[in-house]
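Lecture 7, part 2: worked example. A protein chain together with cytidine-5'-monophosphate.
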Amino acid sequence: MKGNLLYEGKAKQVFKVKDNETQLVLSYKNDATAFNGQKKASFTGKGKYNNLISAKVFEYLLEKGINSHYKRALNDTEQLVEKTTIVPIEVVVRNIAAGSITRRLGIAEKTVFASPLVELYYKKDELDDPIINDQHVFILTDATELELKQIKAIALNVNTHLKEFFTGVNLTLVDFKLEFGRDALGNIILSDEISPDTCRLWDKDTGEKMDKDVFREDTGDLLEVYDKILKRLEAVK
Ligand code: C5P
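Predicted complex, written out as structure tokens:
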């Protein structure tokens, strides 16, 4: 089923599907990068965790009525997805302050926001993915006002459901990043991955960071932490 390699990113490879123009195979790599690729390492087995965790997240969201490009996991490291054309913005939703917002705005880590904060970043490696506002989106991309409104509404809806999903496995959803694409009909559709690489997750009892910050901040064994998350999700009926 897997055809030629179409594109290789920092964390995934994208392959064509033979004799099918509407689907793609995403292959999760073992590579970890942080600070826009300045810090790099490879962890044997990481691809499996992100593939299987992301699959569980997209399956849960579908149960809650949120469609995405995800179709099904093909094996430990690959999933079949609907082909979309990515809108070059990254949408970050923050429930609690951590990471770049603490450095950029001097907000103390762990500050809880009264309502979820939605931020937009321009997806452009050469520029280090700068933060942008709505007007920048219209200048830099072909997204319309209606599409941006849909994107933000989906992002907040995903937040509502994922907070509950992760609470079920004793994790606090601190923040996360989403990407969106357009399907063959031009509809906006949730794309990319949702995994501990793209979310901050803190253990509710201990406060332990159980996400890519373990790698960013060199505080422990990334694979051990990702394994714990997958095991917790697998234990949920
Ligand atoms: O680095 P920052 O604090 O802005 O990240 C916010 C959230 O978005 C974190 O969960 C981080 O893992 C995710 N993110 C991502 N990809 C990026 C930037 C941020 O998955 N390029």
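The domain at 2-82 is CATH 3.30.200.20 (Phosphorylase Kinase; domain 1). Residues 36 and 127 are 10 Å apart (CA to CA). Keep this in mind for problem set question 3.
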